[in-house]
Amino acid sequence: MSPDRLSITFSALADPTRRAILARLISGEASVTELAEPFAMSLPAVSKHLKVLEHAGLITRGREAQWRPCRLEAGPLKDAADWLEHYRRFWEQSFDRLEDYLGELQGKEKKDGHDDEH
Amino acid sequence: MDTTTSIDAEERERELVITRIFDAPRHLVFQAWTEPDRAARWWGPQGFVTTYWDMDIRPGGTFRVCMRSPEGADHWKQGVYREIVEPERLVFTFAWEDGEGKPSHQTVVTVTFAEHGEKTELTLRQAVFETVEACNDHRRGWTSTLQRFAQYLASH
Which tens digit of pLDDT belongs to each residue from A57-76? Predict the structure, then answer.
């Protein structure tokens, strides 16, 4: 995934209403009216959020003229989740090394009492 | 159901947070982050070697670091230090560079160091949803709402 793509995904996910819409779509396709229901929000306001999600490739809209159901698209979400997982591993492994390094430093600092500990 | 509220509450619970207790005094753990030669010793995955580091550790100072993978591939990371509160808190922006030296998606990392007897509890938070600009105003909407999506993905 290109960096731009990732930034688009994350900025689309940065809004709680949009995340709520995505969460709703996990349980299946829905119309704009259905998606608007839980929010104290006008249909145009919800449509605006849907446009952002659609632009980010996080949802697609059906072509049926009348109700154009929204559907969750897994691809960008998976890329974003993978990217995060990559960061998590990066820190976890760095911390393993930090642990070793701190042990080493203290071994040096505690030269006189090194037989107290391993 | 009030979806908005439940998502917000969930979001706070599900911040992407990594916590680790180190068997070392707080000042030493803090130094390992804020003295460049020390940071270069551990900052990176297993098997990676830091081959270049330039860290100007003061608020507004920048860093640029290169780590070399066991296969010999160079990975550059860069960012700007925002807060340095010795010995308890460190905030900086963080991005990997693309092939042309431009930063990719920027994140804000907040590291806190808490005394835990003789040990130190380190907590790292990494904000990825918000743009770096938005993080200036308020910190909210950290990562792990994605866990929910990951579960969805796993089942499809």
Answer: 999 998 876 778 999 998 88
Residue of chain B minimizing CA distance to A80: B146
Q: Indicate whether B139 and B81 sit together in one domain.
A: no
Number of domains in chain B: 2
In a mutagenesis test of the A interface, which of B42, B93, B118, B140 is the best target, namely the one with the most A β-carbons within 10 Å? B42
Cα B82 to Cα B136: distance, rounded to the nearest angstrom: 10
* Residue type, position A56, single letter: A
Question: Are B35 and B45 found together in one domain?
Answer: yes
Q: Which DSSP helix (H) or strand (E) runs through A28?
A: none
Question: Once rounded to an integer, what is the mean pLDDT over residues B126-131?
Answer: 70
- Does residue A2 carry a pLDDT above 70? no
Which residue of A lies nearest to B98 if distances are taken between CA atoms? A3
| pLDDT (average), residues B92-105 | 88
B137 CB neighbours in chain A (<8 A) are none
Instruction: Kindly give, in sequence order, each residue whose CB lies less than 8 Å from that of residue B83, ignoring residues fewer than 6 positions away.
Output: B59, B89, B90, B91
Distances (CA, A) of B101 to B31, B66, B78, B98: 28, 11, 9, 5
pLDDT digits (tens, 9 = 90+) for A40-56: 888 899 999 999 999 99
Shared-domain flag, residues B148 and B91? no
Name the residue range of residue B72's domain.
17-127
Residues of chain B contacting residue A88, judged by C-beta atoms under 8 Å apart: 16, 18
Same domain, B105 and B145: no
For A3-26, what is each residue's pLDDT tens digit? 568 888 888 888 888 988 998 998
ipTM: 0.76
Q: Look up the CATH number of the domain holding residue B112.
A: 3.30.530.20
